Amino acid sequence: MSNPVCYLGLVHHPVKNKRDEVVTTSVTNLDIHDIARSCRTYGVKQYHIITPLTAQHQLINRILNHWKTDKSAAYNPDRQNALALTTLSPSIEESIRNIQLLEGVAPMVVVTGANFEQHDGEVSELKKRMQLDKRPIFLLFGTGWGLTSTICEQADFRLAPLNGPGDYNHLSVRSAVAIYCDRLLAREIKN
After folding, report:
1. How far apart are CA 146 and CA 6, in angstroms?
2. Contact of 36 with 85, CB cutoff 8 Å
3. CA angle at residue 183 from 163 to 76, to 5 degrees?
4. Nearest Cα to Cα of residue 186 among 8, 67, 72, 38
5. Average pLDDT, the chain
6. What is the rounded CA–CA span in Å between residue 47 and residue 8?
7. Tell me, what's the pLDDT at 17?
8. More confident residue, 6 or 68
9. Would 181 disulfide with which of 23, 42, 111, 190, CB 3.0-4.6 Å?
10. Cβ(60)–Cβ(88) under 8 Å?
């Protein structure tokens, strides 16, 4: 089975804070770099950083452009290679439109969240659905305290939360991206 066409979105708006209010979170340098590296490793086609804030777009562009310069690219070509997958978007809707333009079909929107009480299934169920559907997927991760209920309700598939052996369930978004990418997109090893 070939890997699906996968796009990944890190959503900074609309997301929730711990009081369940809709907010816009700040972009972090670590999220830009580390998630781009996971995306490149697992064959994600594009990594969308989603924020409506112009100041955040300026900051992200400054970081991305830094790694495009001759000196920085020569110093760390792997980072520049991974960051080349990164694109900025003012909204989830704009990202979906852009993916549809590239692929000729709207993507299947898949959402994640540590606090989902209801979900559509584990990664194995999503893989089965992808085999039938044949559309690219747009895998969304929320920052702050997660994606809003409106975004989750509009999604085509809600992935089951990642759970460890205990009660604690508050991974960094960078860790969650790496785990889901591995479960969904890793090359199967044949013995």
Report:
1. 21
2. yes
3. 110
4. 38
5. 90
6. 5
7. 96
8. 6
9. 42
10. yes
Q: Where do the domains of the chain lie, and which CATH numbers do they carry?
A: 6-185 (3.40.1280.10)
Q: What is the pTM of this model?
A: 0.91
Are the C-beta atoms of residues 54 and 25 closer than 8 Å to each other?
A: no
Distance CA 130, CA 25 (A): 31
CB 84 within 8 A of CB 32: no
Quote the tokens at residue 95.
């990202």
Q: How far apart are CA 66 and CA 163, in angstroms?
A: 37
Res. 123: pLDDT tops 70: yes
How confident is the model at residue 71, as a pLDDT? Answer: 53
